[in-house]
């Protein structure tokens, strides 16, 4: 394998008022201060109560950790100057999407005009992990193999059980909102890079989309970088969980490329079957298991993760990510952010659960900074 196994992480955060704990729009002065310090590593999002950060290209999870610490600390510091606090969660526990203001930007104006209410409900935040894959043809070849693991990534990352003040019963309600958008969900399988370009090019030539950044599959070749971009994960309240998930993506890509170098590959399953696991992850997180298609039975996520870590231990160790990936066993065993949020909500006095969850999320955002 003659390539560098780089990673990059993009995270979207929500901004809350420190007193009411409800969502609050970012003042212009806040964005200007963030831009002055972080330059192009920070950007406004679709709604004014959101902000997006992106790490530099990282070689190791240790690099990614330091990048996220620096970026999260800067966002927190500039937020505090405006009585705001950032939270890294995919849905706010009680604020309503109808009350939020939009960011004035040509791209977002177009999105709202084209998608109407579907776009206006996009009060959600995700985490995207870019894994470097140098060859265009290889990105296409790896997509259907890596797709098998997308439900596993979702199950381990679930952080959005609440929507507009109600427990949805889902571990990732974010995905229910996002799936209303066009060009989302599991990616199709393509025979070649040329076929992918021709397919996407049809919509570009017709003026339906301006470029492939408007294709929002759970996994896609990046429009800007020589990477495969996983977009399935809920954003993580705790920085260390973000790093662990990024390490898993990086290790999976290395494992699949290692198999390719031995003239082997991960078995490809029909999108119909993978979609069923995707739903199980969306609904239950790590609580009810995923389908092992090889064994034709439902197995606990903790058991599947142990097996997966054994398969890619060689790769994670070579990348210096083994300890970080191993941390995911805690999520599989103890539950994800969705589990923790529900526990905090249940323990709070009646009528105060939503505020208690936001305080909990503020604490987790700052843990380790």
What percent of the residues sit in helical stretches (DSSP H or I)?
A: 40-55%
Overall shape: globular
Structure summary, number of beta strands? 13
Q: Which second-level CATH architecture applies?
A: 2-Layer Sandwich
Strand % is 5-15%
Structure report:
The chain has 15 helices and 13 strands. The protein is of the alpha+beta class and 369 residues long. The protein has a single domain (7-362), classed as Creatine Kinase, Chain A, domain 2. A hairpin with a 5-residue loop joins strand 10 (219-221) and strand 11. Helix 9 crosses helix 11. The mean pLDDT is 95.
Keywords:
15 helices, 48% helix, two-stranded antiparallel sheet, alpha+beta, single chain, Creatine Kinase, Chain A, domain 2
Q: How would you summarize the topology of this molecule?
A:
Layout: E1 7-17, H1 28-38, E2 42-44, E3 50-54, H2 61-80, E4 84-87, H3 106-115, H4 117-120, E5 126-132, H5 136-146, H6 150-157, E6 162-163, E7 166-167, H7 173-178, E8 184-185, H8 193-205, E9 216-217, E10 219-221, E11 227-234, H9 239-261, H10 271-284, E12 290-292, E13 297-299, H11 301-319, H12 322-326, H13 328-334, H14 337-347, H15 353-366
Parallel strand pairs: 8-9
Antiparallel strand pairs: 1-3, 1-4, 1-5, 2-3, 5-11, 6-7, 10-11, 12-13
């Amino acid at each position: 394998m003659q390539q560098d196994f780089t990673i990059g992480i993009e995270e979207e955060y929500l901004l809350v008022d420190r007193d009411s704990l409800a969502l609050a729009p970012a003042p212009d002065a806040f964005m200007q201060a963030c831009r002055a310090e972080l330059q192009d590593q920070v950007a406004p999002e679709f709604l004014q109560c959101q902000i997006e950060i992106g790490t530099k290209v990282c070689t190791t999870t240790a690099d990614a950790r330091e990048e996220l610490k620096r970026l999260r600390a800067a966002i927190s510091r500039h937020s505090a100057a405006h009585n705001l606090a950032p939270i890294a969660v995919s849905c706010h526990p009680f604020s309503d999407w109808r009350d939020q203001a939009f960011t004035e930007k040509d791209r977002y104006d177009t999105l709202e005009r084209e998608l109407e209410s579907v776009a206006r409900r996009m009060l959600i935040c995700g985490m995207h992990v870019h894994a470097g894959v140098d060859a265009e043809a290889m990105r296409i070849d790896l997509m259907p193999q890596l797709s098998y693991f997308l439900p596993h990534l979702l199950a381990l990352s679930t952080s959005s059980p609440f929507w507009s003040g109600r427990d949805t019963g889902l571990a990732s309600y974010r995905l229910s909102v996002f799936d209303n958008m066009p060009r989302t969900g599991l990616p199709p399988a393509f025979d070649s890079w040329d076929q992918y370009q021709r397919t996407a090019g049809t919509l570009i030539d017709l003026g339906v989309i301006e470029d492939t950044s408007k294709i929002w599959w759970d996994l896609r070749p990046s429009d800007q970088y020589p990477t495969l971009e996983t977009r399935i994960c809920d954003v993580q309240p705790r920085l260390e969980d973000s790093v662990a998930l990024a390490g898993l993506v990086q290790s999976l890509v290395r494992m699949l490329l290692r198999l390719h170098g031995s003239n082997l590959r991960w078995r490809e399953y029909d999108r119909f079957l993978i979609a069923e696991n995707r739903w199980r992850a969306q609904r239950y997180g790590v609580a009810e298991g995923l389908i092992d298609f090889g064994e034709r039975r439902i197995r606990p996520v903790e058991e599947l993760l142990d097996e997966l870590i054994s398969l890619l231990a060689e790769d994670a160790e070579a990348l210096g990510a083994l300890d970080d990936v191993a941390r995911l066993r805690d999520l599989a065993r103890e539950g994800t952010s969705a589990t923790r949020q529900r526990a905090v909500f249940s323990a709070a006095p009646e009528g105060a659960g939503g505020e208690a969850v936001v305080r909990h999320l503020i604490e987790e955002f700052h843990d380790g900074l």
